[in-house]
Structures are given as structure tokens and as C-alpha cells.
Amino acid sequence: MISVDIKKNELIGEYKNAGSDYRATGCPDAAKVHDFVDKDLGKIAPYGIYDIAANAGWLNVGIDHDTAAFAVNSIRHWYEAVGCGRYSNADRLMVTADGGGSNGSRVRLWNLELQKLADETELILQVRHYPPGTSKCNKIEHRMFCHITQI
Question: pTM surpassing 0.85?
């Protein structure tokens, strides 16, 4: 994991944002797709954690690949930095995740890495996956990622 300061138009600012802005017909603003790939700066992989109870977010930004190991490591870093202090008496952690991608319900590495995390923290991990095609129902999409694209 790295810590990154993202400046306007350095990487994320020029990427597609579903917001609206008045433009003359046939003259759209050029935008890149949502994969956050830049030929000079490389690719970033954001992985966000939204704590519903605290109404607070945590964002890890990787510069390599979005893998199941990276996804679980993001949860691990959140738990070590914030979660264990905020919820010191907790014996379980519920994770809601998209149904596909690096944290998909059928990804074996995701399940293996989650088991490692459960063993390390001695927490019971409960995972609920959104059905395929419903990732936009995930609160992280609305609570955090909308702000990333506005930077």
C-alpha cells in the first residue's frame, strides 16, 4: 500500500464522471474511462471501505493490480488503523462486497485471504455479496467514489 496525494487533473480529474455540465450538442468534453489508466502515470486501483456505523470512509490506492489480496489487505489496513480502536469489543466484522471483480464470491483467493485475516484478527468475518450487476447499489459507490472523480 502507498500513500498518494492526488492533485486536480493529475490523474483522476480527467476521468469520466457521470455528472452533467451544459455543452453544445455534438461538443462533449473528452473524458477517459473509469479504469483510471494513464500512459504516463500508470494504473491505479482504488479500494474503498465505508464504515456505515461511523459514516466514515477509508481509501487504499494501489499502483499495481486490483487483486483479491489487495482487496483483503485494504480491509486489514483499515482494521489495524481504525477498526480495532473504534470497535475494540467487536468479535465479528461484516463486509459487504460487489459480486464480481477481485472480491467476487467465486474468487478463491478472496476467500483464502479473508480466512488469513480472520485467523490474524480472531474475528468472525461475515461477507455479504451484492448480486452481479448491482454494484451501484453498494453504498461505497455513492458515499466515496463520487468524491474521488470530482478531484
Answer: no
Tell me the pLDDT tens digit for each residue of 80-115.
Answer: 999 999 999 999 999 988 777 788 888 899 999 999
Tell me how long the chain is: 151
Q: Any bridge partners for residue 127, and if so which?
A: 95
Domain boundary assignment for the chain: 37-148
pLDDT at residue 4, rounded to an integer:
36
Distance CA 48, CA 51 (A): 10
| CATH number for the domain whose boundaries are 37-148 | 3.30.420
Burial of 114 (0-12, 13-18, 19+ CB in 10 A): buried
In 39-118, where do the E strands start and end?
Answer: 42-43, 45-51, 56-62, 92-97
